[in-house]
Request: fold
Amino acid sequence: MKEIRNPKAKGRRKSETRRPNHPAPAKTSFSAFDLRPSFGLRISALGLLLLCAFAVCSFAEEAAPAAGRFRFPPPEFESGYKLPDTTTPPARALVMQYVDVAVFLGALGLATWLTLKKRSRRGIVALSVFSLLYFGFYREGCICAIGSIQNVALALFNSGYTVPLTALIFCLAPIVFALVIGRAFCAAVCPHGAIQDLVLVKPVNIPMWLEHALGVLPFVFLGAGLLFAATGSAFLICRYDPFAPMFRMTGSFLMLSIGAVFLIVGMFIGRPFCRFFCPYGALLRVASVVAKWRVRTTPDYCTQCRLCEQSCPFGALNEPSIPATPVVRSDERRRLVRLFLLTPLLVVGIGGVGSLLAGPAAKLHSTVALAEHWLHHQKTPPEYPAMDPDLLRLKRADKDPKQLVSEAAAMRAVFIRNGWLLGGWIGLVIGAKLISLSLRRTRTDYEPDRGACVGCARCFEFCPNELVRRGLMPASAPAPPPAAKT
Amino acid sequence: MDTNPQPNPPKPPVSRRQFMRDGARATMLVGVGGLVGLLAGRHASNGFVWQIDPAKCVRCGLCATSCVLEQSAVKCVHTHAICGYCRLCTAYFVPEPNALSTAAENQLCPTGAIKRSFIEDPYYEYTIDEKLCIGCAKCVEGCNRFGNGSLYLQVRHDRCLNCNECSIAKVCAGDAFRRVPVDHPYMLKSTTSH
Reply:
């Protein structure tokens, strides 16, 4: 603006000379003169003189392309009035993101040390409270590792989007930790896990068949979330996050009440979201199966005292296996072969179902939704056309409806392909689950399941050997007396 | 599985299962490393934030109600360099006002967030009180339809949580929300680009 104004700093009422060149704002209820009722009266002799003197300057400005674009040219002030600047409050400083990453990695390391080395339930609880306060209520559930997998998926399949380094670290660090030492992230770093772990007051064990059946859901959610993110249509995992609205203390009534239901159920059933819905937990579960080091109930060796049998509220403690008779073994082998044959059928069958459901699901994509809306409008024009937001959008987006429809058709084809993929994935997960349940494992001790154990450190205190290690019980105690349970 | 279970094995020999586990772990670690390599080359910027393109905004008013925050992170901003400083401001006054005064019944803004002050005859300055602004875009509509368009909506980054899925972008009638680099987080109008 300054460069335009400076050459004629004293040229007052420039707007007057320009007025005839300005198109009057047509089809409005105001004319230009209504809006400036008084300016015609203010022309002084001096003003006229100055006008003549600076006529050349003003003419030059008239010719400038920028000048003609305003209905009401910005005025020249005589009173020394200074234009206020438009404020631009900055986004959260980048350095704070690195603070987040440092806290995150520190908390992961601390959780590892607390579960594997210190074996302290109290420490885990303290770290959980910290994580809940920092990543939950202070950072308001964002940035979070669970959602960051979508950013990574979007960045992988969409060259227009680049994933921030912090999101990449939040996504991959817990996976690397899980590959080496198990689910340290779930133990005490994830605010979602922490809030559920802290409300668990009266654990009730649920039947194993239900546990395993519901255990398929996180993988379904994972596949759906990644596919929707990769196509750039929606961040499902964030949209249906039950706890983030709680951390923000605001959100849709539906998600807040789902969060409340999870917490109430979570008072009796340990970590329902982690076990039966969390897509990131599914990833970590797979990764921690092959972990180098693992959480063990006993610090040294298992005495088969069975005191820890009921200690795990998450159904993650496995009992020693019973040696199989040859008859049982051959039965199991036959079942395994059948399951291996069944899995491809599941993949294809559920894939087909997925491709059938993909059509309706495609409406979640904005382009498809807009095209559908337009087509519907063409088919049944409303009696009294009202400008609803969708039509307004089509009108102002300057999009050719034909092009829109063809774009939507292409997107729908992508969705149908993804429907096959997602259905196939679900079939594969169900097949893998059935096979893994049918595999015979030789287990001599009571030990936490590699995948399901979140490292909450609850079972440690049930082990008499642990009490010996802490010096709470004499080392010579041959068998744990019942009193040792407390 | 092939090895006989030992009563108290402090260090069992490497079994087939253990070997497979080591192999799978190594494969997954390599995979994670590959992912980092693939994406680290692409993370050119420091990240993205949401912003409204004023040229695409249709002033539908959804910004005021759709944000996850109780008070929307979207506010009206004012580029004074474009403003005509009109005495009868169509962003400030309701259509056909009783008088060109600051009386409440003449004001278009539902929260009275626009302050009108006299500068010099016949010019009046209009400033937005962000604490009161709810981002309803009523004034933006008035200014863009009849005036210079110096008022427009912007996501204010001191308030915005930068959600992964912006709940306003999801419903934005003009498709005006987009991710912009965090280095240039605002799309301000100016005299050269407006």
Chain A has three domains: 2-69, 97-322+445-485, 331-381+388-438. Chain A touches chain B through 83 residues (CB under 8 Å). The radius of gyration of chain A is 33 Å.
